[in-house]
Amino acid sequence: VIQAVFFGICVLTDLSSLLTKGNDSQEQERQLKKLISLRDWVMAVLAFPVGVFVVTMFWSIYIYDRELVYPKLLDNFIPAWLNHGMHTTVLPFVLIEMRTTHHQYPSRTCGLAAVCTFAVGYILWVCWIHHVTGVWVYPLLEHLSPGVKIIFFAAVTIIINIFYLVGEVLNNYIWDTQK
């Protein structure tokens, strides 16, 4: 969903840019700048770190023991192409986007705070679903004791923050910018 929303914003930004090109409307320019800022923020805080996290975590766990993250039973309902659409294609598309479009990252403090807020919010959502249904969204969590779950959730939050920093460094490297 994050990737779909992000790339939808990218298309909207590109279309708006094309439609306002050569137009002297200051209001349209102001709105376009807001849209570009939103696109850049979503890329920096959500699309890149979450996208890279999903691909690396999913396939690492899948290779170790697929039943922990994507039980064979799901093959009956979710075709392989859709699984790859959710867990593979995210990485090349987000890397292509980073290479083709310069993104202005927020301040490191604001960016990391936003990434942490998302990570904690998502973890709380996963825990809420378990609380209401009695089923863990990710089968891996069934095998972890409460203490290990806390350590796992903390590690996940740290990893996603590292991916935010990797995205910032990669963006600056590709576009040769210095903060």
From TrEMBL:
One cellular component (GO) term of this entry: endomembrane system
The keyword Transmembrane helix belongs to this UniProt entry's keyword annotation: yes
One Pfam family this sequence matches: Far-17a_AIG1
InterPro entries per the UniProt record, alphabetical: ADTRP_AIG1
Reactions the enzyme catalyzes: 13-octadecanoyloxy-octadecanoate + H2O = 13-hydroxy-octadecanoate + octadecanoate + H(+); 12-(9Z-hexadecenoyloxy)-octadecanoate + H2O = 12-hydroxyoctadecanoate + (9Z)-hexadecenoate + H(+); 13-(9Z-hexadecenoyloxy)-octadecanoate + H2O = 13-hydroxy-octadecanoate + (9Z)-hexadecenoate + H(+); 12-octadecanoyloxy-octadecanoate + H2O = 12-hydroxyoctadecanoate + octadecanoate + H(+)
Membrane topology field: Multi-pass membrane protein
UniProt-annotated location(s): Endomembrane system
Key words, A-Z: Membrane, Transmembrane, Transmembrane helix
Membrane-spanning segments: 41-64, 76-98, 110-138, 150-170
Top-rank taxon, per record: Eukaryota
First-listed, main subcellular location of the protein, grouped into a coarse class: membrane
Protein family membership: Belongs to the AIG1 family.
Protein name: AIG1 protein
Classification of source organism: Eukaryota, Metazoa, Chordata, Craniata, Vertebrata
Gene expressing this chain: Aig1
